[in-house]
Amino acid sequence: MSTITHSSTELTTATTRELSYSEAIREALRQEMQRDERVFLLGEDIGVYGGAFNVTGDLYHLFGPERVLDTPIAEEAIAGIAIGAAITGMRPVAEIQFSDFITLASDQLVNQAAKMRFMFGGKVAVPIVLRTPGGSGTGAAAQHSSSLEAWFAHIPGLKVVVPATPHDAKGLLLAAIHDPNPVLIFEHKLLYRTKGFVPEELYEEALGKALVRREGQHATIIAYSVMVSRALEAAAQLAQQGIDLEVVDVRTLRPLDEETLVASASKTGRVLVVYEAVRTGGFGGEIVARLAESDAFDFLDAPIRRLAGRETPIPYNRQLERSAVPQVEDIVVAARRLVQE
Amino acid sequence: MPVDVIMPKVDMVMDAGTVVRWYKGEGEQVTAGEPLFDIETDKATMEVEAPASGTLAQITALDGATVPVATVIARILQPGESLAQAQPALVSLATAAPRAVSETRPRKRATPLARRIAREHGLALAAVSGGGLQGRVRKNDVLQAIAARRVSEQPLKNGSAGPQHHIPAAAASAALSAPASVPDLAGTDSAAGRLVPLVGVRKIIAQRLTLSAGLPQFVLSMDVNMEAAAQLRERLPYRPSVTALIARVVASLLPRHPSLNASFREDGIWLHAPVHLGIALDSGGDLLVPVIRDAHQRSLGEIATALSELRQRAEARKLTPSELQGSTFSISNLGMFGVDQFSALVNPPEAAILAVGRSTRRPFESNGTIIWGQMLTLTLSADHRVTDGAAAARFLQDVRAVLEEPLLLL
Known about the structure:
The complex is a heterodimer. By secondary structure, chain A is of the alpha/beta class.
C-alpha cells in the first residue's frame, strides 16, 4: 500500500495538474482501487457505458466486471448489496445515477447503514460510500434535479459530503472511502465539467472541515457545492463596488465544522447562507440556527439571511429552472442588501 | 365584536399623534360620542370621541405615548364580550407614564453587535439613531454616537470649569451623546432640574426659529400716534382690540406691498395673492399662532370676531391644525404685558413679522409745541433675501398713516 497525504489544500505541489471534477473523482477511484483491492464500484450503467455522467469512464476496462458492477435498475438493491459487502469487510463505492432516486434506497441507508454500528454495540462497521449527482441546471426536469442532502444530514450515523471543486471531489472522496462509517457524497451535475488543480498523489481532505475560500471584511457568504463558485463570482463582482465579502465553503454537512462558520460570522457580523435546495427544511436553515445560538450572536450586526431554492419542483423550462435556484446575480443583490441593511 | 379605538388622522400631513390623557380608564363604561381621550399633534391638541358605547379595554398607548395614525390604541367591548374575544392581543406601545409596567424590554431595534458595543461603552441605545432598516441601530450607528459623545465632552474637559462642574466618573460614563452638563433623557427629574420633553408646539418653535435665526433679517421701528385709532375703537359697538385694528390695517395694506407678503424659495420669491394673517397668542404658557385666512377681504368687524373666536378656541385647546398653518404674515402683540417695544423673529416661510408694543401716553413734538399723545411702537422684522429696508419702511409708513387716520380704512 502506498502512503496517503493528509489535507493538501495548498496547490503548490509539482504533481498538481488541471483536471475536471469528474476526472478528479475517476482518478481517486482508480488510485484507491489500485491501492486497496477491497474497493469496488457498483451502480447503474457505470461499467460498460462509463456512467450517465461519464464519471467511472474506462474503469470497467481497467478493473473488469468483478470490481465495476453494472447493477439492475434497483436502488434499494444497490444500497443493500453495498451495505452487506461492507459488513463483510469490503469497501464498496456505490453510485445512485440521479440523487432523486435515492428515495428508493433510503430505507437501506437510514434504517440499516446508519444504525448498525449503534445497534450492534460497535461490533459492526458499515464503511460504504454512496456517490450521487444532485442539483439542477441541466434541463433534466423535476425528477432528476432535486437537492436532497438535508434529508440525510438529518440522520445520525450518516456522513454527508458536498464537494465544490475538483480538488475537494478527490480529497473528500478518498477520506470517505477510508472512513469506517457510511458516507454520502452529493456531487453536482454542473460541476462535473468544471476544472481545477488537483494533486496527482493520493490525499485526504478531512471530513468536518469547512474552508474559507475567500477572506473578506463586510459579510460572510456560507455556501456549498455549486453555490461556492457562484458566491465567489458574486464576491468578485461586488469587490469592484467596494464590498469585501468572505466566502466559506461548508464542504461537509455532517460532521459540520461549526467552529469555522462561527469564526467567520463573528468576524464580519453579517451572514448570507446560500443553498440550492428548497428553502424550507434545507440545510442552510440548520446553519442559520447554529450561528444564531452560537457565540457569534453578540457579533451579529444584521439578521442572518438565507438565499435558497424556491418552493417548487425544478421546472423543465430552462428559464424557469434557472430562476428556481440562486444565480450569481441573485447572490450579488442579496449580499449587497445585507451589507447595507 | 369589540370596537377598535385608533389614533385618528385629523390632518392631511399628520403621521403620528401623542395621547395627552385618557378621560376613562380600562374597565370603565363609555358612551359613543363622549370625549374619550385628548391627542396632541405637531400643531394642536384636540379631543377624540368614543367611537362606540361599551367597556373600555386594552389601552396600549398610555398618557404621553406617541403612535402612528390608525394604530389601535384601545378597544371597546360590547355588553357580554370579554377580553378573550378581543384577540389578537394588542402589543403594548411606548409610553411615558409610570403605569406602563408590562413592557420592560426596550423597543428599540438594534443588532446584537450594536447592543454589545453600546453596553461596553455605557451608551443607552435610546439615544442612538439607527440608520438601518426600520431604524435598526447597527455597529456603525453606535460607533458614531460614541464619537459624537467624545466630541461633546471635549469642551468640558478642556474648559476651566470650577469644582462645581466636576462630574463623578460613574455619572459621566452614564451620560449620553449630549454634553454631560445636560442630563440625558433617562433621568427626567432630579434635584438638579427637570426635563420638559420637546414635543408638539415647543418642538415646532424650536425647529422653525432655529431656521429663522439663520436668516438675514433686518428690523425697523416706527412710532404711531394711536389717538384717532383709540377714538374709533371707543365708538364702535363691538370695541375691537388694538390687535384686531392693526390686523385689519396690515391686511388691507399688504396687497399693495407684495414683497412683505412673500416667501423665499430656492427658485425665486413667491408673492402670495391672499393675505393669511397669523396672530401670535399666549395660551396657557404656549405660543400659538392661529391664522385668519383671507384677512385682506375681511372687514374690521369680521377680523375682530374671528380673532376673539380663535382666542377662545386656543384657551380651550380646541384649535385644529388647519387653523394653525398657512399664514403669510404674522403679528405679535406683547403690549398687554407692558412691553414698550420689541423685535420678533421672522417665522419662515413668511418674509416678515410685525411686533406691536404697548400703547402709552407719551409727549411728542407737534407744530413747535410738545403735546401728549397715545403712542405705540411698531417693529417690523423682515427677511432681507425677499425685501429691502426702503420697501419695508414704505409699508410701515402706510400702516402708520392709516392708524393715525382710520377713516382711510374706508
